[in-house]
Amino acid sequence: MPTMKSSVSSTPPAARRRPRTTTAMLLAGAVLFSSGCAVAGSAGGDTGSADGSTLRVVLTQEPPTLEPCEASLTGTGVVVRSNITEPLVERDPASGALHPLLATGWEQTRPDTWTFDIRSGVSFQNGEPFTAEDAAFSIDRAVNSDLACNVEGYVFGNEDLEVEAVDDTRLTVTTEEPDPILPLRLSFVEIVPRTTDTGAKVRVPVGTGPYAVRSWQAGSAISLSRFDDYWGEAPPYARARYVWRSDASVRAAMIDKGEAEIAVALDPMEAEKDTTVSYPNNETTALRLDGREAPLDDLRVRRAIDLAVDREGIIDALLGGQAEPAGQLVPPGVVGHGEEIEPPEQDVAEARALVEEAAADGVPTGRTITLVARNGMFSGVSETAEALQYQMQEIGLDVRVRMADTATHLQYQLRPLPEGVGPVALLIMHGNQAGDAAFTTSQYLLSDGPQSTFGTKELDRRLDAAGALSGEERQTAFAELLAAQNESVVQYTHIAHMSGLLGLSPTILYEPNSATGDELRLAEVAPAAAEGR
After folding, report:
1. Any idea what the Cα angle at residue 280 is, between residues 277 and 282, rounded to 5°?
2. Distance (Å, rounded) from C-alpha 82 to C-alpha 279?
3. What pLDDT digit, counting tens, does each position of 224-253 carry?
4. Is 310 helix (H, G, I), strand (E, B) or coil?
5. Which segments of 175-291 are extended strands (E)?
6. Is the pTM of this model over 0.85?
7. How far apart are CA 529 and CA 527, in angstroms?
8. Is residue 424 a contact partner of residue 372, using CB atoms and an 8 Å limit?
9. pLDDT (tens digit, 9 = 90+) per residue, 433-459?
């Protein structure tokens, strides 16, 4: 097989290192190893930004951990990724292109092997030099170990990798089967020193990023300090401080009162403020219909539910107009998104006729369907669940709503799926952070996918074949698969491609993108006074 080289350069993209100026923007070393303590010589928690040198961010909740191998979890990644730790390769959220970071280039040297050139002159925040051995260690720890890292299941599934540091600046990664998107997968592996604990997950990490952890006051705040020996361009702010408030109105008020520069996940009612910026994120809401249980095991009933939903009405009335109707789980900008797939128009008469036809054939359409939704999934979630309940009842189905906490919702969402609970329509919100449909289909469409209730052998076969393709062939194959799901499987009633709302102080410049909710890059934020410098 001929060698396949990537078209990359050794220079990181300018957008990675410098804040970008747009109208939206204008609107707008030692490291800690245990919680609650600061490194020597530091004030154990910045409480303000009187001199403007501290960037203050208010989150929805305290991160459960800062363990780098859990950075694909939103609550962790929003702090860790590209701030404290970095991967070998990073994906541009706007174009989907892969850019060099701790790797300066890569090539597919055999069908099952990729070789990476490792950047030299990089140090970790504990002073240790970064080499290919650290990269090999980090991949092995995240993917091949018994730590049960989230990145392993979400990105790599059950596949182990063979990793070898050929020398200090060259790394080879061998897969069990040829993998055309391995560099994309590795963009989710955060690099840590080879001295990192392999027997347990760490609470606070050491990385190569532009910021090091200064202190973590449990229940109160996380503070970062600029890493003076960072290999790239120094970020504009010397410090950053994260706090968390569960109430969206409180987060918005902190921007208004000058108590924070960035506030995440604001309520749609804040959308008209000059200090609020809307941006398309990678989340899609949908109803997952459990095809193992009657009446949801009948294709006509599932198709009827798809036709019953008033997507435009839900978006306008309950989501503040901050979303787009969805006809697939994969949002625009992701490889495999089907541009020609349109969400169905609401047709109550046709939906009712399908239910009546199924009932005439003996399908127990009067059996109660439980619509399960998670509290706090998004603003207006309970009202959305009630609207869906009403629209399903309008076509002759019996539906009750169950609002659940996160733990209970996960029991319905992940395999092993609960038994003896009857037919369930689960309201989900799926985010494709990786930019490739394979990360969605392997979870949600495969018959035995971790978040799928059923499927077909034919769809499974086509999914397997699509995963081995690259380029336009890959795009076409996955788009056709998503269309086939809508025609022959209908496990999902898609509702909306969601948008995020970010509160931005007029004192800063920042342009959010589709990855902002998962990876808020502090180096891309600058003081407004820096415009044009």
Report:
1. 135
2. 20
3. 999 999 999 999 999 999 999 989 999 999
4. coil
5. 211-217, 221-226, 239-244, 262-263, 276-289
6. no
7. 5
8. yes
9. 888 999 999 999 999 998 999 999 999
